[in-house]
């Protein structure tokens, strides 16, 4: 399964501009990436989208998970099911639905429409991770804080939130990777001049895979793997405490 990735990494160091033949080891393609204005612009857009989407989703996803775990209200089960639908709905369906919604309200496509679309699935992933942590917490701690004179907000900030922090961080890291790697939803909701890194990669491989695209893909895979590993490590460590 990982053989294609290894081959991709191998040819990213190929001196030849053609991937089919090996002509020697070089790092020139990696140097070329960091002087490519289009790549740097796409990277900047991807980071803006990821940080904004994850930041907003972290707040909303945490509040959603706490509300579903701690409170009873009419339509709770229905709301829970709808909230986690992005986890099972195909990306193409989310992309088309978002595009149709934006077109219906005549909202111009831009970097902010990509962020709005990414919040949809980032929110669900963070909510799931935080919810799994909430099931292992003792609600008596919050009740004790309230009995000792704390307000509900103080109990949330000083008692519940510190216990949820590892899960929130793990959820944010997972959502960051998903946002950074997303191509399908971003391609449907991006406007002119708002290409993200996956979109830029796809636009370049239409004319054939070049070593600089190989190098860019290797960097993207490596960063995503490191962030995903850290998120999983934090989540596993938190669940074993």
TrEMBL record:
The keyword Membrane applies. This is ABC transporter permease. Belongs to the binding-protein-dependent transport system permease family. CysTW subfamily. The keyword Nuclease does not apply. The lineage of its organism: Bacteria, Bacillati, Cyanobacteriota, Cyanophyceae, Nostocales. The chain crosses the membrane at residues 45-69, 81-105, 111-134, 155-178, 213-234. It comes from Nodularia spumigena UHCC 0060. PROSITE patterns: ABC_TM1 (PS50928). It is a multi-pass membrane protein. Keywords: Cell membrane, Membrane, Transmembrane, Transmembrane helix, Transport.
